[in-house]
Amino acid sequence: MSFKSVNNILNILKLEAKWQEQPFQLLLNCWPEVVGVKVAAQTRPLSIQRDVLWVATASAAWAQNLTFGRKTIVLKLNQKLDQKLPTPLIDIRFSTAEWKRSPLPANQQIILSPQEHPSYLGKSISESQLKSTTTKNAQVVFEDWAITIQERSHNLPLCPQCQCPSPPGELQRWGVCSPCAAKSVMPPIS
Questions:
Q1: Which distant-in-sequence residues (6+ apart) come within 8 Å of 144 by Cβ?
Q2: Are 128 and 134 in contact (CB under 8 A)?
Q3: CB 69 within 8 A of CB 63
Q4: Residue 79: which domain range?
């Protein structure tokens, strides 16, 4: 009779636990990391059928946009789950069909930070600043706001279309500031 060390037994148990993990659960665990927090908040993987991942989306617009990038998502998922899925994924199908039937658990809330928005500039308002503005009159608050905006926009790059100071994230994302981007999308009012 041979005696095995506790470490050897624990290592064997860890390996057995990994073998018993379901591939779909592994995919669920890495989904927000692969697609990003914003997309993960609007999507929910439902199942893997014949090496195709089925994903519910919050709207048809999300389904359509994600369909265009599905090959990239499949590549990322296959790289992330390499050797953990029995066979690699071959495609993804996005649909709104199951979105309402499978709500998020009450304890699972995805919180997006302001830093993730392309218009984010940096400093946030502290609670003490917020409390101090409630005791001032409207003129003083407006003057404080104007000074803050001037200081904030002093070193910002200019929009190539309107020459207004613009957050770098907006210029990187759209090539112009958000008002100019909105104008180019909206038809003129006649």
A1: 133, 136
A2: no
A3: no
A4: 18-107
The tokens for 35 are: 């697609």
Q: Do strands 43-49 and 52-57 pair parallel, antiparallel, or not at all (unpaired)?
A: antiparallel
Cβ contacts of 21 within 8 Å, gap of 6 or more: 84
Total residues found in the chain within this entry: 190
Does residue 103 share a domain with residue 22? yes
- Specify the residue for token string 């981007």: 181
Give 119-157 pLDDT, tens digit per residue.
666 665 555 555 555 566 788 888 888 888 777 777 888
Residue 158: phi, psi to the nearest 5? -90, 145
Query: Model-level pTM?
Result: 0.45
In the block, tokens 């998922």 appear at 77
Q: How many domains does the chain have?
A: 2
